[in-house]
Amino acid sequence: MEVLLRSCLDGDEKDGQDETIVPLDYEKAGMIVDDDLHELLVRPLKPGVRLTAVFDCCHSGTVLDLPFTYKCTGEIEVITDNHHKEVAMSLLHAGLSLRQGDVGTTIAQLMEGYRLLKKPGDNAEAQKRSEKMRRSDADVIQFSGCRDDQTSADATIENQATGAMSHALIKVLRDHDRITYTDLLQKLRQQLKGQYTQVPQMSTGRPMDMTTEFIM
Length: 216
Fold this sequence. Notes:
Blueprint: E1 2-7, E2 17-22, H1 26-29, E3 32-33, H2 34-42, E4 50-55, E5 68-70, E6 76-77, H3 84-99, H4 103-118, H5 124-134, E7 139-144, E8 154-157, E9 160-163, H6 164-175, H7 181-192, E10 201-204
């Protein structure tokens, strides 16, 4: 299964992009957008129902559009990006290139600065919109292989083809009969650290106590 990115149309994505699953028949039937996954898999669930989903695929950090993503400390992560420094650096490089008579690089740096300037910055409003639109009263928990801006690695471990995150998740659960969500996320990331660049994510449909024990 592969997940791609496309421009977000409803303003609920903090990075300004929707995630889409690419099915085998995508050329005829199209891609499956994360908004649709949420409506089909999450929205119908009633309080007391539990869904644990695992997506070990590229750009899958928020593929179920769950509004709450967690740090290893168990705290909810709110990402606010500010591109002002990057814009300033692009303008600086453009100025230096212009002094050297390099018109092509000057134009390229100016265009990059403009692109960064138009890129969504402080995404607190997108976070609020996501919480309002995507919150679920059911117990919906998603583990994903990486952040939205990363790829999930394929691996061959013990002569078996697998996903790096899938293998790590299975190993951690096999090694620990009882484990909290905080410890599970920490150990999952530790398993991959130093071998892969991807950072596994955990998100939920409503705020949860990360010190509770993991259950399926």
